[in-house]
Amino acid sequence: MSDGLRIRLDRTLCDGFGICAKHAPGYFSLDDWGYASLIGDGTVAEKDRDAVMRALFDCPVHAIVYMGEHRPSGDGAAHPDVQESPEPDPKNNGSEAISEFVR
């Protein structure tokens, strides 16, 4: 069972559309020029998950970054459940572009 999700805001990507503050005003505020700031430490309560995820998906410049889920541990502290994505495994189906793929 998760204890909530974690997000962060990359302010260098923000273009000031303000969609995040529209969907999740408890997590995003806008400055005088319309650029977003994250309210709090990025921990999102389960009850606010849908609104924050809508803000994340609707951000036109992808400035909101999904950092993973919190899972409660025996010591009472929340530890993020972070896993690296596996490397893609390109398959060669006779495609010249894939056959020349170099890592």
What does this structure look like?
Strand 2 and strand 3 form a beta hairpin. The protein has a 4-stranded antiparallel beta sheet, covered by helices on one side. It has a two-stranded antiparallel sheet with strand order 2-3. It is globular and about 35 Å long. It is built from 3 helices and 6 strands. With 103 residues, the protein is an alpha+beta fold. The chain has helices spanning 19-23, 49-58, 96-99; strands at 5-9, 28-30, 36-38, 43-44, 64-72, 78-81. Helix content is 18%, strand content 25%. The mean pLDDT is 80.
Low-confidence stretches: none
**What general form does the structure show?**
globular
Mean pLDDT: 80
Helix content: 10-25%
Question: What is the count of helical runs?
Answer: 3
> Got a strand count?
6
Q: In which order are the strands of the major sheet placed?
A: 4-1-5-6
Strand content: 25-35%
Structural class by secondary-structure content:
alpha+beta
Order of helices and strands: EHEEEHEEH
Termini separation (Å)? Answer: 38 Å
What gyration radius follows from the Cα positions, in whole Å? 18 Å
What characterizes the major β-sheet?
Answer: 4 strands, antiparallel
Protein name: Ferredoxin
Cofactor: [3Fe-4S] cluster
Keywords: 3Fe-4S, Electron transport, Iron, Iron-sulfur, Metal-binding, Transport
GO molecular function: 3 iron, 4 sulfur cluster binding; metal ion binding
